[in-house]
Write a structure and sequence with these properties.
- The complex is a heterodimer of chains A (280) and B (807).
- Chain A is of the alpha/beta class and 280 residues long.
- Chain A is built from 9 helices and 12 strands.
- Among the domains of chain B are: 105 residues, Orthogonal Bundle (Helicase, Ruva Protein, domain 3), CATH 1.10.8; 182 residues, Rossmann fold (3-Layer(aba) Sandwich); 245 residues, Ribosomal Protein S5, domain 2, CATH 3.30.230.
- Chain B has 29 helices and 32 strands.
- In chain B, helix 4 packs antiparallel against helix 7 and helix 25 packs across helix 28.
- The radius of gyration of chain B is 48 Å and the shape is elongated.
- The two termini of chain B are 51 Å apart.
- The chains are: A alpha/beta (280), B alpha/beta (807).
- At the A-B interface, helix 2, strand 3 and helix 3 of A face helix 5, strand 4, strand 5, strand 6 and helix 7 of B.
- Strand 3 of chain A pairs antiparallel with strand 5 of chain B.
């Protein structure tokens, strides 16, 4: 009988802040989680070294977003606006921390953004960041920082997009009996709000296996007292999975990239799917 | 000259014989009134109600309590239900000009159903529209439009980014926009490395960057345009979705009201407005957060406001009206007549909309009849002017008084005026009618017909029967005991007494109604099922008694000789006149002593009352007529060498009227001739320059006043009253007086000339001129002539001796 891992106890949550809508959503979700788990919240703001370098280039011009005017880009203005942005990020962190009565700290570092974020998150038990940040094209899929965290960063990591409330997340966990999926389930159980429904999508290779997996799980989960709904899907490609996830339309998706489906497929899924994702 | 004989008892009171009536009690009569004796007024009413031209409104004039309103209501109760039922009216929002709400005319009974239909429509919209806009199809379409825009933008920028990447130029987001910089391994080239490059390389990079920048700028320049296009597309989508949801709902309403053009037109505009403002039916969560303290909760306010916008304010609902409406407005204040625009206080300011328009009596009575009490109308500020304006312009224009006088400065409305087709009936006293027609030129144009109500009706059998029916109707209406025919007869007699004319009956319904109620009270007290004559008599007596305090005080003072009235002896130059007192509407008569003294003089009669300004002009006129009479009778061939003074003894409150002028003349004749007057008589009547005695008012009360005093002192058979012969028809005396006359204890003399009167008072004939132009020496006139001659001689002597002295 499979045992659930002892849940990683989350004491410190790091959140990447850059004043974009995604980052605001991340902050909200992170703060709500911190309150639930009684964890400390650390805000990370990275001053983009690329910007500073660029400002020092002799011919550099900035094209203003709403006037399309081109203006020279000088270091002192840039420094000032970065400070202002950092200040704004810190204030929003302080405000939400006061409201929810959680401990918070704020850290500003300078460097290449994805690297700095991942480095700064090293000490935290959970990294929360927006699916995309201030990237120039309003592209779909993950932003550069998120991609970097997905590829190289530590686990667990939570990718947020605006429009979901952390409080009322129904959670969908992908479970196939693998080590990674067991960990995903235990993490989900540790962060889930007991009032919301836990959806478990069981990916068995055969129907019989699925039934077995469900039977085994239900005994363990019943102890937790959460409402659980089981869904079954034969193990299949990432595309089918994605369609099914969209159909269930549950809020937060919890999964691991150490499951029976390949890591690449999981990453592609995360890149495509339009839901907040907790990768364990 | 023959002395007129005493009036026989049957002349003193015109009894109503119960046997004239064919019914036993009023229960045998139907309980509704037919108007008798008001033919003139009814002719006017029927003329005014029948004529369709402007300005033929009615003024019903007559004393209060003559039943004007009852009679008109009775008339209209027969004719109004035959007229067509007027239209319903309602006010609806004017979507183009919200300050000018539109008036809609609908067939009777339709306004309320339209109002209900609109309420249901709004309710339906609150479910239909949100579900249309929350449907997946809509959401998907909206998302598509947004994404189309974003994708296009992202693609263009993405292309540029790719192009840059090929040339190792990175697109970087700055805090306020975009910038391009040379990159190496995903990082911006460090400035010092860059500076180490060859100039040629640097120039080439710069060139590339400038090219990319220009391309970027042109992409940016397109953004507002495509944003606008997106907005337009979204709006178009919204319109289509809203219109698809709304149209079937309104089409349903429209088929119901196709016949009414105005309503279909309104529904058309309404549909467009709902589609344009569909979002008010879709609640947004964010709105709830913006509730300020002291405001209504956002949800309620939003829902309420849009709800009001599409509501129908029913001003006139004739669904339950039969025929033309008949409205009596009890408080004809301006806003009660023409309606009002109310305001509600919201966050310290006064706001209003078309749902706060309030109807007035003119709206309710439009197409029918409006009855107003004229005195109350005039007592209300501006109400009369407002009514006249409405009648003149033939429309009801609602203006708030406060707005008119700038008492409040807040947004107000100018509702579309409603055409007015109405007959206004003003009820008022005659005086008011005459004043209005004299001083208000508009009045005679707007109220062309006057229904002049009689205050008395003929005392023939028809009149008596009318009385019986009136009593019956009061009994039926107020659920009283029925009256037997003797009781009715007694009331008829009382009606005669009120008019002071034995051949007429009073139409003062209030007094009759009061008497009926009072008689019923006494019958109930005596546990009688049927009210009898004695109950009526009881009521009359009791009423008299209740109001008798002052009368009793005066009589008491007279009996104690505080007020000197002689009813026994004979006195020169002294006579009992009769005065009427009317404190608080109750009239009673009482004798007053009139005295005349003469002395040498130049022929003037001094009216002491006038000298001290206690006599009114009519009284003074009466006294001056006496001078004229005396001069003509005695100073034809010699100067009138006397001065006479006349006074009402012990009068402390002034005197008016000429009804004592005959008494004053008798006192003067007695004083001049030196013949005493019998004090057992009292006299009333006015006199003209020829000595004819003329009619006066209140003859019954006067006789009874003297009778009461004599009776208290003890009737001797000598007592009596001289009244003008022309007043005999007014006699409706109390029963005890009639009985005393019957027993020969009291007498009433109808006098038509002072010569008759003086003979009765003195027992000596007045005397007529003989062929030689002289009065007999033993007549009153003869004795007067002799005394006057003596006086003239004395004056002559006196004046010549004084002339001698002067010489």
């Amino acid at each position: 009988m499979p045992e659930l891992h002892k849940s990683t106890h989350i004491r410190r949550i790091a959140v990447a802040l850059d004043c974009s809508p995604h980052s605001k959503a991340s902050l909200g979700a992170a703060a709500e989680l911190a309150r639930q788990l009684n964890a400390e919240l650390t805000g990370i703001y990275v001053e983009d070294i690329n910007l500073l370098r660029m400002a020092n280039l002799p011919f550099c011009h900035e094209i203003r977003m709403y006037t399309s005017e081109s203006e020279t880009f000088d270091t002192s203005t840039l420094e000032r606006s970065l400070k202002v942005q950092a200040k704004a990020a810190e204030q929003s962190l302080q405000r939400i921390a006061e409201d929810l009565m959680i401990k918070q700290s704020f850290r500003v570092s300078r460097g290449i953004v994805p690297e700095e974020v991942i480095a700064a998150a090293g000490e935290a038990d959970l990294l929360v960041l927006g699916r995309s940040g201030r990237s120039p094209s309003c592209r779909k899929g993950l932003g550069s920082t998120a991609r970097k965290a997905l590829e190289e960063g530590k686990r667990p990591v939570l990718f947020i997009r605006p429009g979901f409330s952390a409080k009322e997340w129904p959670v969908l966990v992908l479970y196939d009996g693998s080590e990674g999926s067991r960990q995903a389930l235990s993490t989900a159980l540790s962060i889930i709000n007991p009032d919301v429904t836990l959806n478990v999508l069981i990916l068995g290779e055969t129907h019989e296996e699925s039934v077995e997996l469900e039977l085994a799980l239900s005994e363990i989960i019943a102890l937790r007292g959460s409402a659980v709904e089981y869904h079954h899907l034969p193990l299949s490609s990432g595309q089918t999975l994605m369609r099914y996830i969209r159909m269930v339309d549950s809020g937060l998706l919890v999964l691991s990239d150490r499951m029976k489906i390949s890591r690449e497929e999981v990453h592609a899924l995360i890149n495509e799917i339009d839901y907040p994702v907790l990768l364990v | 000259m023959a002395i007129p004989s005493k009036l026989p008892p049957e002349k003193l009171y015109r009894t109503c014989n119960p046997q004239e009536f064919s019914f036993n009690t009023t229960a045998d009569l139907e309980g509704h009134v037919t108007a008798t004796g008001q033919e003139r007024a009814f002719e006017a009413i029927s003329f005014s109600m029948g004529i369709k031209h402007d300005g033929f409104n009615l003024f019903a004039l007559g004393p209060n309590g003559t039943g004007k309103q009852t009679a008109i209501m009775h008339f209209l109760g027969n004719s109004a239900p035959q007229s067509p039922v007027p239209s319903d009216w309602c006010y609806v929002n004017n979507f183009e000009k919200p300050r000018h709400p539109k008036a809609l005319r609908l067939p009777a009974g339709k306004a309320c159903s339209l109002s209900r239909a609109m309420e249901q429509l709004v309710e339906a919209l609150f479910t239909v529209l949100p579900s249309a806009f929350s449907s997946e199809e809509y959401q998907a379409q909206e998302k598509n439009i947004h994404e189309e825009f974003q994708e296009q933008q992202a693609n263009e920028i993405g292309e540029l980014e790719k192009k840059g990447a090929k040339e190792h130029i990175a697109l970087i987001k700055t805090p306020a926009g975009f910038a391009f910089a040379p990159e190496k391994d995903g990082e911006v080239v460090k400035p010092e490395e860059f500076m180490m490059l060859k100039k040629k390389e640097r120039d080439s990079i710069e060139k590339k960057i400038i090219a990319l920048k220009t391309a970027m700028q042109s992409i940016m320049a397109q953004i507002p345009k495509s944003q606008r296009e997106t907005q337009k597309k979204i709006k178009e989508l919204n319109r289509n979705v809203a219109s698809f949801a709304v149209k079937p709902l309104i089409a349903e309403l429209r088929t119901e009201y196709t016949a009414i053009e105005e309503v279909s037109r309104y529904l058309e505009v309404l549909e467009a407005d709902i589609i344009e403002n569909f979002d008010q039916f879709i609640e947004k969560e964010s709105d709830q957060k913006e509730v300020l303290p002291g405001m209504y909760p956002g949800k309620f306010l939003q829902k309420g406001a849009s709800f009001n916008r599409y509501r129908v304010n029913v001003i006139v609902d004739n669904s339950a009206t039969r025929g033309a409406p008949v409205v009596y407005e009890d408080k004809p204040a301006c806003q009660n007549l023409v309606g009002d625009i109310e305001h509600i206080a919201q966050m310290g300011t006064l706001v209003t909309d078309f749902t706060l328009i309030k109807q007035g009596a003119l709206h309710r009575a439009n197409g029918g009849y409006l009855l107003i009490d004229a005195r109350r109308l005039l007592a209300e500020p501006l109400a009369y002017e407002a009514l006249k304006k409405a009648l003149r312009t033939r429309q009801i224009r609602i203006e708030s008084l406060a707005q008119l006088y700038s008492l409040v400065s807040t947004v107000s409305l100018e509702p579309e005026p409603i055409p007015l087709d109405i007959k206004v009936i003003l009820l008022g006293e005659r005086n008011l009618y005459y004043i209005l027609s004299d001083y208000d030129p508009d009045f005679s144009e707007l109220f062309k017909v006057a229904a002049d109500f009689e205050d008395e009706l003929s005392g023939d059998l028809d009149g008596k029967l009318a009385y019986a029916r009136i009593i019956s109707s009061i009994v039926h209406k107020d659920n009283l005991h029925h009256f037997d025919r003797a009781a009715v007869a007694r009331i008829v007699e009382h009606g005669s007494r009120i008019t002071g004319d034995s051949t007429k009956l009073s139409t003062h319904m209030q007094s009759i109604s009061d008497l009926v109620h009072e008689a019923d009270y006494y019958a109930t007290a005596a546990t009688r099922e049927i009210v009898q004559a004695e109950d009526v008599q009881h009521a009359i007596d009791a009423k008299l008694f209740r109001s008798s305090r002052i009368r009793e005080k005066i009589r008491e003072a007279t009996l104690r000789n505080s007020i000197l009235i002689d009813t026994d002896s004979e006195k020169i130059g002294q006579i009992n006149g009769l005065a009427i007192y009317s404190p608080g509407g109750q009239r009673f008569g009482h004798p007053g002593r009139i005295t005349a003294r003469v002395r040498l003089g130049k022929g003037e009669v001094i009216d002491i009352e006038r000298e001290v300004k206690m006599g009114g002009p009519i009284h003074s006129k009466g006294v001056m007529i006496l001078s004229g009479f005396l001069g003509a009778r005695f100073a034809y061939d010699q100067p009138l060498s006397l001065s006479a003074s006349l006074v009402f003894e012990q009068s402390y409150s002034g005197i008016e009227g000429d009804s004592a002028s005959s008494a004053e003349l008798y006192a003067l004749l007695s004083a001049i001739s030196g013949v005493p007057v019998r004090q057992c008589f009292a006299v009333t009547g006015s006199v003209n320059q020829f000595g004819q005695v003329q009619a006066i008012g209140g003859v019954n009360e006067k006789i009874e006043g003297f009778f009461d005093l004599c009776k208290a002192r003890g009737l001797t058979g000598k007592h009596g009253v001289l009244i003008p012969a022309s007043n005999v028809r007014n006699l409706m005396l109390r029963n005890d007086v009639v009985m005393a006359v019957k027993e020969g204890l009291f007498a009433i003399f109808p006098v038509s000339d002072v010569d008759e009167g003086i003979e009765i008072l003195t027992g000596i004939a007045a005397g007529e001129l003989d062929k030689t132009g002289l009065y007999p020496d033993d007549s009153i006139n003869g004795m007067a002539v002799i005394r006057l001659k003596k006086m003239a001689e004395k004056i002559k002597k006196f004046s010549s001796s004084s002339d001698d002295d002067n010489k």
